[in-house]
Amino acid sequence: MNYLFKGRLSGQICPECPEALSGVLVRLYRPERSDVTAQAVAPAKDSFAILSEPAVTAKTGRLLAEVRTDAKGDFVFELGERQKYAGEAFEIDLRCDTVRGAAAGASPLQCTLTTLQPLWRQTDNGLVAAWEYGIPQRHWCAVRARFDAWTVCGQVTVCDRKDPVMGVRVLAFDADWIQDDPLGSGMTDSDGHFRIDYSGASFRRTPFSPSINLEWSGGPDLYFRIEAADGTPLLIEARAQARTPARENIGHCHCVKLCIKEAPHPQHPPTQPLFTNVGQYHVDPSYGDFTTEGLTTATISDASYAFTGNIPLIGILPDGSSSQAVEYRFRVAEYDATGTMLGATVDVTAGLVQPTLIGKLEYWGWSTLHSAWTIRAADYWVNHPGATLSIPQPSGPALSVSINQDIDAQGWIKVPREDNLIPGGRGRFIPLGNLAVLKTAELTHEAHDLTLPAPGLAAGQGLPAPAKSRAHAFKLWFEARDAVSLAPLPGSNALDKIVFSNTEYRYQRHPSWAGSIVNSSAVVSLDIAELVGPGAAGCGKLDTELHALYTVYHPFVGNARVYFEGNPPLPAATALSLVAGEAVSPAGGLLIDISAQAPCAYVLWLEATLNLTSGWGRIAHATTWDHIAFCKG
After folding, report:
1. Are 408 and 433 in contact (CB under 8 A)?
2. Is residue 163 within 8 Å of residue 157, measured between CB atoms?
3. Cα distance from N-terminal residue to C-terminal residue, the chain
4. pLDDT value at residue 451
5. Residue 324 contacts by C-beta under 8 Å, 6 or more apart in sequence?
6. Given this model, what pLDDT does residue 374 score?
7. Beta strand segments in 188-284, E
8. Residue 495: strand, helix, or coil
9. How far apart are CA 56 and CA 54, in angstroms?
10. 62's torsion region: left (phi>0), alpha (psi -120 to 50) or beta?
11. Which residues of the chain carry a pLDDT beneath 70?
12. Nearest Cα residue to 204 out of 217, 214, 189, 196
């Protein structure tokens, strides 16, 4: 039996400052003690222990397997017969060669995390279990202390409003008796968080080091300076602040809240919304992805396509940290049959848009399994009414957050503003590229019943003129504006011409042989003249000739052919000539010489491939077939 054990490890500098344990060695050991069950149910926080090197050596014979974590702290064990493992409990140890901010020359360290009995779940590939663990602050900081690694984590906000301040530099200093030691600096992220790592040597050195060092035991006395990106001072703390109880002789892990009177302006220019693509095809004419008629530009490997079905309108949106409230919409108008005059402009409202995944909501949720906050993500939608997220909290009810933006009566969609990526917060919106998925069939859809009037269209007959389509070309506008002032934004743009095609035909196929009425986006109908003449029943044997009757029609058919299936040698395939999207057999049918074929059963095929795309090259089901069997006597 194969066992797959997956996990993720992190350590807490403080509750709001976890760090992924990347590049550490995770070791699994067979338990030594007999009371494995008691060990396995004991809380992990109570079973943590830092091991001496002799204790590590003593466990060598019980080692089951070991792997290193990746950049996110993730690891995967594959266990089974080779390890003589059968699903039982094991000890989990962590070995660190170093940690962030460690002093030079520090020795590796190993600690026991817990004894775990995985909850195995059966899958097609064997048994799978997952485990996620955040090492509590007191334990993880004890590990960091063994490496003489020190860290300051904090957040900078605007004092009155508590708004986070992004993109400022925080500098930390140790107020010493002889000199002030710079410990390091860090930039704030979009939540105002920063981190500064340093080793003990940073604050122990003096002008007389290494002969004379101060602060042989205990930590530094902290004060801070905050600067804008251009170096402008935003906060200069007095040295006396370092002698207050909260800042004096701090430990290896220290968290702090700092505030400034006013955030620097602008912190960064806000991202401007922009309509960039229909699927893989660029809207900007400099790319040359669209022809002047509104089809995609043909290449060596790709035909020229019209668009069909639901198509993704793709572009750029600001994330939740943007300082500007923004909303956007699409508008559309159809050209006339000449492709020159535009009709009435229509707002793209909810009825023209299918539920669209526009991004993710990244958030911190409480894990009852691990008694820790964990980073997670949920889909964020447009036009998916009622979509909500329930964010677990350590106590009390879960936090309910909407993960949908409705489309208003004029087509406007507000860009999500969630920007609170902290434990207990509502998360941050991260755009993924989609703006809306347009339902083109709501703009043009042509349905024709070719079974009426009876007896209806037969293979070899051309379509009546009213049943034929044309290139339905549209213009698409993208508009963005400030949601407060309603002032237009510079990202507003347009796709001058794009062709949509959504056709549906109902027709009868070869009623004399396995006939049926089909519904298809194209007409692809085949028959054999010798089998449908007076008195024929679709089962007569052929001799030396076959007359193929066929009708192919679609406004954007790319190619069509007639070919044979059966014992070789077979007649060569015949490529059909298409005129305005139609191929119709000559009067009496296309003559094909079958005199060289041995007496046997054969199948005649008709194939047509459409030049349609939903945004990502030719659609998956672009080819349509019809076929009819016959016997040569």
Report:
1. no
2. yes
3. 60
4. 97
5. 270, 318, 482
6. 93
7. 193-199, 222-227, 233-236, 253-260, 274-278, 281-282
8. strand
9. 5
10. alpha
11. 34-45, 177-179, 205-217, 266-268, 534-538
12. 214
pLDDT of residue 45: 65
Q: How far, CA to CA in Å, does 369 sit from each of 365, 481, 564?
A: 12, 45, 64
Report pLDDT for 204: 73
Nearest Cα to Cα of residue 502 among 455, 555, 449, 539: 555
Tokens 């105002």 sit at which residue? Answer: 192
pLDDT in tens, 53-73: 999 999 999 999 999 998 889
- Cα 568–chain centre separation: 49
Q: Residue 13 class from Cβ within 10 Å (0-12 exposed, 13-18 middle, 19+ buried)?
A: buried
Place of tokens 């430990």: 251
State the greatest distance between any 2 C-alpha atoms of the chain, in Å, as a whole number.
117
Which one-letter DSSP state was computed for residue 424? Answer: T
**pLDDT at position 269, please?**
76
Contact 439, 353 (CB under 8 A): yes
> How many angstroms separate the CA atoms of 197 and 253, rounded?
10
d(CA 364, CA 532): 71
pLDDT confidence of residue 40: 55
Per-residue burial over 132-147, b if 16 or more Cβ lie within 10 Å, else e, is: bbbbbbebbbbbbbbb
Q: Fill in the amino acid letter for 125.
A: N
pLDDT tens digit sequence for 242-281: 999 999 999 999 999 999 998 887 556 789 999 999 999 9
User: Are the C-beta atoms of residues 258 and 235 closer than 8 Å to each other?
Assistant: yes
What span, in angstroms and rounded, lies between the C-alpha atoms of 23 and 8? 12
Residues 6+ apart with CB under 8 A from 243: 175, 221
pTM, rounded to two decimals: 0.62
Per-residue model confidence (pLDDT) at position 207: 46
Which of 138, 71, 85 minimizes the C-alpha distance to 111? 138
